[in-house]
Amino acid sequence: MKTAFATATVVLLAMTFAFTANSDEPVEEKTALSFNTSDIGKELLDTLADSYELRFQEYRSGRSGPARLLDINRELYEQQRESVAADQRLIVAEQFLARAKEINAIAEIHLKHGTGTRMDLLDTRASQLRATIELENVAAL
Prior knowledge:
The protein has 141 residues and is mainly alpha-helical. It is 75% helix and 0% strand.
C-alpha cells in the first residue's frame, strides 16, 4: 500500500513538472532595475522597499490602515524614479501602479468584510488613480 502511494505521488509530481515545463503560459520576465545612486541612496532604496513590504503585510492582515503604506509607496516610487536611467522610468512607474492596485484591492476586501472604512477605500483609489496618471505621463515622454 505504501509503495503504491509513493509511486502515485512520484508520478503525479513528474506530470506536474512536465506540464509546467511545457506550458504555453507566458513567462513573466523580471527586469532588473539598475540604480545610479550613492551607497547611501542604495541603502535608502533598500530600506524603503523593506518598509513597504512590512507595512503591506501589516495592512493586508488588518493590523494597520493604508495611510502610511500609501506614503511609503509614493516615497519608494519617487526615490526609484530619481535613481534610474530614463529608459527604466516606465518600469518604475508600472511597478508603482501595480503596488497601488494591490493596496486598493485589499481596501476593497477590508470594506467588504467590515474591517475597513469607505475613507480608506477612497484614499487607496485616489492613490491608484494618481499612479495611473503618473504612468501615463511617463509613457508620454
